[in-house]
């Protein structure tokens, strides 16, 4: 660190250095080298002009991260993360995302703005604040993006020919946050009647020829509802 003055000073001027507001009596030169702890601040003054000390310089404090708007974050909404740290000289900020123990640089700047946040943006974020003295890192903040179910997919097990009397399972799956609730229906059967199942799986423990037909499922959470394509079950008699 170097103590500078905009005024013309006499040759061989002496300086006073302060650490956390206390005089460092062993230092009288214009320069001072020291290992800087995160909590330390330093200032200086020209000897004889102690009433006009410099502003203290210090490393960035541990940054805080705020989220706007607070509360539930829905896919497609605008979300802003803000990083704040007290520092002199002023800190420069950078944003990172933590994925599978790796740290991905996202952007520089005090704010990280998602104009239309997506489900893929879910994850842990943190920021760094850095000046000429040190870099400090914030705690991570978790972004949990909620979204309506994607188009459900339907699978049948076992695959291949379905023989009467065998066990057959239809499975409905959809990516959703919060997780979806599932309902099974058979085509051409009044959906207002009791559905076939309200579980992800529709199980036929001993399937019959009368069970032949087209089936579909729905996936629903509080953000929306999607309906799968039909799957055709053709039961063969032995």
Please, could you describe this protein's structure?
The chain is mainly beta and 238 residues long. The chain contains no helices and 23 strands. It has 3 domains: 15-58, no CATH class; 64-146, Immunoglobulins (Immunoglobulin-like); 153-236, Immunoglobulins (Immunoglobulin-like), CATH 2.60.40. The protein has strands at 15-19, 22-24, 41-46, 57-58, 64-68, 73-74, 79-84, 92-99, 102-108, 111-114, 123-130, 135-137, 141-143, 145-146, 153-157, 162-163, 168-173, 181-186, 201-204, 213-221, 224-227, 231-233, 235-236. The strands form 7 sheets. Strands 8, 9, 11, 12 and 13 form a 5-stranded antiparallel sheet that branches. Strands 2-1-3-4 form a 4-stranded antiparallel sheet, with no helix packed on it. The model has no long low-confidence stretch (mean pLDDT 90).
Short key terms for the protein model shown above:
rod-shaped, Immunoglobulin-like, 23 strands, five-stranded antiparallel sheet, four-stranded antiparallel sheet, mainly beta, 238 residues
Give the oligomer, counting copies of the same chain as homo and different chains as hetero.
single chain
- Rg, Cα atoms, Å: 33 Å
Number of domains: 3
Low-confidence region ranges: none
End-to-end Cα distance? 91 Å
**Number of helical segments with 4 or more residues:** 0
Strand content: 35-45%
Average pLDDT confidence is 90
What overall geometry do the principal axes of the alpha carbons give?
rod-shaped
Backbone structural class: mainly beta
Roughly how much helix do the residues carry, as a percent range? under 10%
Major sheet characteristics: 5 strands, antiparallel
Query: What's the total count of β strands?
Result: 23
What is the CATH class designation of the largest domain?
Mainly Beta
Looking at the overall shape, the CATH architecture of the largest domain is: Sandwich
CATH superfamily of the largest domain: Immunoglobulins
Query: H/E element string?
Result: EEEEEEEEEEEEEEEEEEEEEEE
CATH structural fold name of the largest domain: Immunoglobulin-like
